[in-house]
Amino acid sequence: MVATSGEHASDRPGLEIACRNLSSGYLGKKVLDGVSFTASEPAIYVVLGPNGAGKTTLFRTMAGILRPYSGRIEIGGRSIEEQATRDRLHFLSHVDGIPDGLTVEEALRFYASVERAGEEDVERVLRLLEIEPLRKKFYSELSAGQKKRVSISRIFLQERDIYLLDEPTANLDPKVAAEIRDLILKLSRNKVVLYSSHNLFEAREIGRYVIAIRAGKISLFSRISEMRSSRYTVGVRVMGGEASLPPEIRKGEYYIFELSGPEKVPGLLQDLQSKGVQVREVKEMGNPLEDLFA
Amino acid sequence: MGQTAVSRGRLPSVTSVTFRRGLYAGRLFLGVGLMVSLILTTVLLRSPRGAVVFETTFPLEVPLFASLGAMGGMMLFVSDRSKGVLEYLIAYGIRPGTLFVNCLLTTVGLSSIVLGSALAVGLGGFLVTGHPLTTDLENSVLGYTIPMTYASSLFAASCGMIWSTLSTPRIGYNSQAGVAPLLGVAPPMLVLILAEAVDRSQYYYVTVGASLGFVALVAILLLASTRLMGRERYLSAM
To answer: Are residues A215 and A248 in the same domain?
Structure first.
């Protein structure tokens, strides 16, 4: 499948990452097979897929960590094999990658030296990520949320055109995850951000495009807003007449109904009313992205 | 946000920062290696049997402790790999082979600290206490102590690094970091036992022969590492 976000012209020339017939894997075992897509519009492209589908392999290959068995990765038409091209992207792994035995400040300085960022960039990032109070703490002394914040901070040391973020909010509490999502959303205003996640609601909240991977192949590349779910699920909260509803469809405070589409909601409400059910709230429960995992 | 993305050409070298970090990672081993080698050197210098014991034993004991003191390079590699640091450095464009070589250079640097300190204290003390520097001692240091120190340190480090990439990470004394010091200590220990057992006339042949053989083995291992260490080997577990 060849997919592209090219209907929207990039507002920065060359701000485009393309995988062309990419096959890659580990020690000769193919994980990705013939992956092709182009991301050219500044936006967040959420990469979704079940465990083992090839998301991390795709990111590692696009970041130049793994060499593809065949195919090419290009940024602005130039191969990722060139150092100048590679310098246009940032990669955030699913592992923290903070060296042992360093304080937060030293770890940032370490990456700043590799990135050729300056002392002022380290200070700016410490303030931006609100990790200044942690600067003298060793990485091992931090909580999971603080560790993730420090880990993600390196991508703000230098501005790049393309960002490959492998599960940046995994294992974080909702508050920290929301803060990190906000930072990434701001970043995506004029950048191409590929963002892998298992969280469908997060994907729908921040993503403009979805790239679905299944068994090493791209199974879908689409604007999220254009996706339609095959099932449409609503939750109904009631304030009377529960007795006429089957208890097995109750999930928490809501009774769950699966409909063929949103146009069926008024009919459902009429039906409930005729049964004496007093409806307090109707909430859309389903996420079209769920179908990608079905 | 910082400066605009631009082409910035060559990457900076991470060799010196790798050495500093290796020094920190292996500081306990370095401390033990340094301390024990200096204590033993002092004991040998004060031995009632004098110059003969020093001349035959001092050149043999230094590589033991130098290889022990040089574990920081391997420990850094194992830790960086499991924590995903190597993955990041490769993403920045640093070649995997460079990361491997940097850890070997760190090993060489750390073993040089122990070797240099032991030679300075041992040979300095030997001269200060009124003993002349004999040709036998000179030959033993040049033909055995120096090459065996680097060979055993590099052997332990490269075996530990390659082993860690080929196997599941373990914790504790059966980990690569726990077993590798034994790999480094074993060859000079065997030579020490063998050299003490043979006739004095055979001493030089046994020690220099062992050191040359071991240097050749390490050279083969390092050449093989270019095939064994594909870039997938540098990645953390998924």
So the answer is: no
B4 touches chain A (CB under 8 A): yes
A160 and A188 assigned to the same domain = yes
Q: Does B83 touch chain A (CB under 8 A)?
A: yes
Domain range for A284: 232-293
Please tell me whether residues A258 and A133 are part of one structural domain: no
Q: What is the pTM of this model?
A: 0.80
Other Cβ atoms less than 10 A from the Cβ of A180: the count is 19
Which pLDDT does position B7 carry in this prediction?
A: 41
CATH at residue A130: 3.40.50.300
User: B20 at the A interface (CB within 8 A)?
Assistant: no
Partners of residue A84 in chain B, C-beta under 8 Å: 7-9
CB-based contacts of B224, cutoff 8 Å, min separation 6? none
Q: Assess whether A236 and A221 both reside in one domain.
A: no
Interface membership of B80 toward A (CB under 8 Å): yes
> In chain A, how many domains are there?
2
- Closest residue on chain A to B228 (Cα): A27
Q: Is B228 on the interface with A (CB under 8 A)?
A: no
**What value of ipTM does the predicted structure carry?**
0.78
In chain A, where does DSSP find H-type helix? 55-62, 83-86, 104-115, 119-128, 144-153, 174-187, 200-206, 265-274
* B-chain residue closest to A91, CA distance: B91
pLDDT of residue A25: 93
Q: What are phi and psi of A241, to 5 degrees?
A: 80, 20
Whether residue A76 sits in one domain with residue A183: yes
